[in-house]
């Protein structure tokens, strides 16, 4: 009985807390401003802890406030993991900042379902943005965030090490790829660096193989029917197993992280492994975590699989953007459109911040590595968001976890698709 | 009557703080374990009874977690605590630079988990760049440490011991201070060897402290999280995963708050069963001691 | 006797070296640049680079976080040790019905992971208006520290012989006077112990201040470390410098408290 009372009290407190989820409006009106416009405050949480992002975003906010004196933009910068923890706490209490970082997909869909975010009206801008850039934030044909960036995963390789192993051109097919791995091994070179501890880099391999073998429509269909037992997905696992059986990864990859002096990025950046399958940020990361490869760094898309239903030109990747809280003032969306207007977005690309999101913007990219990614994306015939982002978090993490176990020889390709299906059905 | 006023007044501040900020939120979290909830927006509504619990008891990962827990509890009690006790006895002696050693031995406990992880990831690097392999390679004992399922738990235990033994040493030191000099001196005058003094005088008198330290060690191991999370994330292939790590995987990464709450309730029940057993059969001696004296 | 002394000294040196190596490594690591860390992980820095430490010490953020951390740690400790000592005293020296039940209730607080309680706790702090206030962190930290503090203190309070209490009562001491004037001074080692534990726990707490503080004005060292890691992601050596410096105040507190650990119970008993 007493226990029951305590529970009731706790529930009451919990409920009481849920009522007050709106952010209080700024009280002090700024002096000397037009009397018509109500002063509003926009709370903005983002994760650009370092430059160029930090100062670019700060400048944009200041420029907007200068044009719209009634608007105050309050920026809170959080480190990536800190942002996720803090976000999950406040959103469990039914609260969301006016503007916050999002990567779209399954997490955003859950936030939409919980009524934490609202639809974004892009207006005319909708036509100038590329389909891939907006894709991660489209849920039930409505757009729920403003994109700032879009990129793709591909192989970043060390041209010198490839040459040393006698590989003259980057492999375009999967069998040529496996051949290349064997040649690298024979030359005493570690073919691939992989951050096994973090699991997400491993899921790129399975996802790309599934795309190449089963085709994009199959992946989308699986997401809807929650059935991943398609034999083509099993075949993807078998090909990944064939790769893992060659033992292509660096020693102790099972506990390797992505960043850090012994991580995947530094391993490639210091020339200790010939390649990694990674996103557009890889060159920058290789340079800061390790020495960087400079001219020796090259990019090639994930090879096509002979007889597969997918094409070499289909891209797998993701980007970043900003979602808008359900209670956010109109100024929030207005500011975001201001932020990504081409005259501000395009210069930021060459400041090493974003990748193109506007049609034709890739022409302005000067850095050769970024250009490679931007052009591959611009000519892509299809786009798939990272599976661990596209699906609900539980399904996405199961993909990562099962694939990690496949690579470590703990699960068979059949068990992988069964596990994923099981979790997908229970969601 | 006056006695009850004293008792109430003395207990009240701690009770209020504790009930309001620990017990209530905790009960609330336990309540969530009966729901399927992704942790978003207000209250959970999808009541599923004990489903989260049945799902947990059917999962292989859960039994792996129990195994990890058992191994670390046994290792802690057999290795870490005796080591801490030995260090405390050493620091109680008049050795040169005692204050300095006390500082050094306590420093790991103060060091944050994050830097501990950075350091030991480099020391136990799986290739020849690691300090451990550089030294042990001389005698042919290289290993992949955290990256190998057969060595990951032991490696983790070494790091854990390094990080946390200062806590137990601190307790033992304080406990050792409580033993009157007269007793040990009397034994020495009687011609006892240092070992005999320790075995028959010091150790029994340290009993209460040792029992508390063992208790905290076991409860701490059931809750073990931080170091595992940053050092191995529970891998490779879940081989070093603890209950708390599984809980965070599901609660934080998979947004299954209800299931994560169920795991935490199981952690709580395990601790509670242990605590009740311990109080009844091990700590009882201390309770009796207090009334007899 | 002399040889025994020498061998003890030897053991201390060997074990001390084993324990100290990772810390020395961190201190020296702070003097390297990051590429040295991966190319020359275990040698001496070449060249020595004091820039990392200088940068941290020169940043206003570090000092503000340091101030916040010290403020929160000290208030947490004072509150925690205060309320726990009162409760532990009653639980140790009085016999009354329900005593063990209350003690078990407190002990139960050890057995539930803090991370799960954080969601309801957040709602409660919001309701109480304690978000973005240092008190939100101080009260919760003190509350979660109560179990371990009471368990340790009760053990020590128990070990004080009953004769002393009887003598005090005969002298006309009230319970509070006995607690305040005799018990607490005698239990100085135990109080120093739990204070050190409280300071360290507060010092390294990450999740709670993260959730409570949105305004960086109030951020503590661990939040700063995380932010710093974001800013200098790859710059491991600089992060090491930051972390080494972040450890210093907590260690300094320990060496202050440590004096009370040595002068101990026996001295107090004589006075009593």
UniProtKB/TrEMBL annotation, chain A:
Signal peptide, first to last residue: 1-23
PROSITE patterns (alphabetical): PROKAR_LIPOPROTEIN
Compositionally biased intervals (Low complexity): 20-35
Domain of life: Bacteria
Region span, Disordered: 20-39
Gene3D superfamilies assigned: Periplasmic binding protein-like II
This protein's UniProt keywords: Signal
Alphabetized InterPro entries for the sequence: Bact_solute-bd_prot1, SBP
Full protein name: Raffinose/stachyose/melibiose transport system substrate-binding protein
Organism in which the protein naturally occurs: Nonomuraea soli
TrEMBL record, chain C:
Family: Belongs to the binding-protein-dependent transport system permease family.
Mode of membrane association: Multi-pass membrane protein
Any Pfam family matching the protein: BPD_transp_1
Residue ranges of domain ABC transmembrane type-1 in the record: 66-257
Gene3D superfamilies: MetI-like
Keywords of the record: Cell membrane, Membrane, Transmembrane, Transmembrane helix, Transport
TM annotation in the entry: 7-28, 70-91, 103-123, 135-157, 178-203, 239-257
InterPro entries: MetI-like, MetI-like_sf
Localization terms from the record: Cell membrane
Cellular compartments per GO CC: plasma membrane
Keyword Transmembrane assigned: yes
Protein name: Raffinose/stachyose/melibiose transport system permease protein
Biological-process GO terms, alphabetical: transmembrane transport
SUPFAM superfamilies according to UniProt: MetI-like (SSF161098)
């Amino acid at each position: 009985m007493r226990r029951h009372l305590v529970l009731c009290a706790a529930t009451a407190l919990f409920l009481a807390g849920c009522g007050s989820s709106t952010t209080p409006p700024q009280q002090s009106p700024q002096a000397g401003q037009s009397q018509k416009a109500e002063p509003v405050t926009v709370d903005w949480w983002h994760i650009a802890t370092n430059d160029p992002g930090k100062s670019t975003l700060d400048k944009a906010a200041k420029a907007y406030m200068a044009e719209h004196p009634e608007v105050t933009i309050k920026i809170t910068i959080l480190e990536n993991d800190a942002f996720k923890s803090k976000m999950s706490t406040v959103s469990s209490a039914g609260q969301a900042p006016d503007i916050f970082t999002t990567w779209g997909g399954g997490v955003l869909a859950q936030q939409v379902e919980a009524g934490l975010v609202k639809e974004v009206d892009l207006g005319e801008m909708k036509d100038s943005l590329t389909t891939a850039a907006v894709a991660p934030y489209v849920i039930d044909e409505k757009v729920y965030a403003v994109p700032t960036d879009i990129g793709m995963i591909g192989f970043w390789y060390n041209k010198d090490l490839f040459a040393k192993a006698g590989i003259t051109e980057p492999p375009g097919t999967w069998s040529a790829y496996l051949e290349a791995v064997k040649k690298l091994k024979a030359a005493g070179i570690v073919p691939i660096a992989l951050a096994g501890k973090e699991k997400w880099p491993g899921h790129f391999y399975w996802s790309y193989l599934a795309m190449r073998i089963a085709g994009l429509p199959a992946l989308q269909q699986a997401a809807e029917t929650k059935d991943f037992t398609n034999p083509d997905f099993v075949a993807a696992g078998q090909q990944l197993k064939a790769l893992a059986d060659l033992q292509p990864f660096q020693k102790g990859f099972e506990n390797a992280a992505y960043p850090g002096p012994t991580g995947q990025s530094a391993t490639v950046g210091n020339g200790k492994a010939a390649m990694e399958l990674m996103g557009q940020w890889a060159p920058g990361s290789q340079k800061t975590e390790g020495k960087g490869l400079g001219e020796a760094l090259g990019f090639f898309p994930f090879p096509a699989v002979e007889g597969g239903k997918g094409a070499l030109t289909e891209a797998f990747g993701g980007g970043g953007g900003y979602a808008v809280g359900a209670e956010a003032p109109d100024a929030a969306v207005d500011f975001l459109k201001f932020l990504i207007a081409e005259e501000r977005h395009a210069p930021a690309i060459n400041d090493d911040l974003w990748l193109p999101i506007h049609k034709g913007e890739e022409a302005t990219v000067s850095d050769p590595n970024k250009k490679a990614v931007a052009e591959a994306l611009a000519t892509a015939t299809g786009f798939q968001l990272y599976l661990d982002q596209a699906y609900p978090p539980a399904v996405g993490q199961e993909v990562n976890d099962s694939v990690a176990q496949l690579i470590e020889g703990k699960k068979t390709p059949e068990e992988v698709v069964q596990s994923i299906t099981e979790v997908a059905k229970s969601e | 009557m006056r006695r009850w006023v004293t008792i109430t007044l003395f207990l009240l501040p701690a009770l209020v703080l504790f009930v309001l900020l620990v017990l209530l939120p905790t009960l609330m979290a336990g309540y969530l374990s009966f729901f399927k909830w992704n942790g978003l927006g207000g209250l959970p509504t999808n009541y599923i009874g004990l489903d989260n619990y049945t799902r947990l008891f059917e999962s292989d990962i859960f039994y792996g977690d129990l195994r990890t827990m058992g191994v670390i509890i046994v290792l802690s009690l057999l290795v870490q605590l005796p080591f801490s006790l030995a260090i405390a006895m050493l620091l109680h002696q008049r050795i040169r630079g005692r204050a300095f050693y006390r500082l050094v031995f306590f420093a790991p406990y103060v060091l944050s988990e994050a830097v501990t992880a950075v350091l030991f990831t480099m020391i136990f690097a799986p290739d020849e760049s690691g300090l451990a392999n550089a030294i042990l390679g001389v005698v042919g004992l290289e290993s992949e440490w955290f990256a190998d399922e057969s060595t990951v738990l032991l490696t983790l235990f070494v790091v854990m011991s390094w990080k946390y033994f200062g806590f137990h040493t601190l307790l033992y030191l304080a406990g050792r201070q409580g033993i009157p000099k007269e007793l040990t001196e009397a034994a020495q005058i009687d011609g006892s060897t240092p070992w005999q003094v320790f075995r028959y005088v010091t150790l029994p008198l340290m009993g209460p402290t040792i029992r508390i330290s063992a208790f905290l060690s076991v409860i701490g191991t059931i809750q073990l999280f931080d170091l595992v999370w940053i050092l191995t994330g529970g891998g490779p292939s879940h081989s070093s995963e603890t209950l708390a790590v599984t809980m965070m995987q599901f609660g934080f990464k998979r947004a299954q708050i209800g299931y994560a709450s169920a795991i935490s309730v199981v952690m709580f029940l395990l601790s509670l069963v242990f605590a009740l057993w311990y109080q009844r059969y091990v700590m009882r001696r201390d309770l009796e001691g207090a009334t007899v004296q | 006797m002399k040889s025994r002394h020498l061998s003890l000294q030897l053991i201390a040196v060997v074990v001390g070296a084993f324990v100290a190596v990772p810390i020395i490594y961190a201190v020296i690591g702070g003097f390297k640049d990051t590429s040295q860390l991966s190319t020359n992980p275990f040698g001496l820095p070449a060249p020595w680079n004091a820039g990392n430490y200088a940068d941290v010490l020169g940043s206003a953020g570090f000092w503000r976080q340091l101030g916040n951390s010290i403020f929160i740690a000290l208030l947490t400790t004072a509150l925690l040790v205060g309320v726990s000592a009162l409760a532990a005293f009653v639980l140790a020296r009085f016999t009354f019905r329900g005593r063990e039940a209350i003690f078990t209730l407190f002990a139960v607080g050890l057995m539930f992971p803090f991370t799960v309680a954080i969601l309801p706790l957040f709602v409660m702090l919001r309701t109480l208006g304690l978000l973005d206030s240092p008190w939100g962190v101080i009260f919760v930290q003190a509350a979660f520290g109560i179990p371990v503090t009471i368990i340790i203190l009760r053990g020590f309070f128990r070990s004080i012989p009953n004769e002393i209490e009887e003598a005090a009562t005969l002298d006309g001491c009230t319970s509070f006077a006995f607690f305040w004037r005799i018990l607490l001074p005698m239990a100085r080692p135990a109080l120093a112990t739990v204070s050190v534990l409280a300071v360290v726990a507060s010092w390294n707490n990450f999740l709670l201040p993260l959730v409570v503080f949105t305004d960086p004005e109030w951020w503590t060292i661990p939040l700063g470390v995380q932010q710093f890691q974001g800013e200098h992601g790859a710059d491991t050596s600089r992060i090491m410098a930051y972390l080494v410096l972040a450890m210093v105040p907590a260690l300094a507190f320990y060496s202050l408290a440590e004096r009370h650990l040595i002068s101990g119970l026996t001295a107090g008993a004589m006075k009593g």
